[in-house]
Amino acid sequence: MKTVKILSLTVLMSIFCAGMTFAQQQNQKVTQPKEQQVASKKGQKGQQVKATAEERAAKQVETMKTSLNLSNDQVSKLQPIQSQYVKDQDQARGAKKGNQQDWKTKKDAYNTQVKSILTPEQYQKWQTQRADMKKGQGKSTQVNQGKGNKGKQIEQNQKK
User: What's the predicted TM-score (pTM) here?
Assistant: First the structure.
């Protein structure tokens, strides 16, 4: 009787161990692509590489496509405009001060071009979204970008 109990206990333990091993292998398969993705975005000395202007513009257009329900035609017209705007933004940040009037002119031209592509309803919704982002009410606020969890916790504590 004791041998049957010991034998059944041994079988149960081996099934449990096999299940745990299988679960760990599955978990590694799921997380491996993400680890590779993070590693590919890291530059030398483990620092993250900043996305190119085209990548950032494409991401912004994709966000606009889903949030504003843009047609494929609108997306194709908006892509080069957004790409140029992001490049101009980078250039203006690099120049710091002095070209504020030039930046304002480029920004106004961008707004005019976007307005000509979007419907009045889409343009109004886009303007509202931009205003919310400036206030920090958007999905990913500019204040939180690049801060990590600690910066987000500090900001949440400040709100309380």
Answer: 0.53
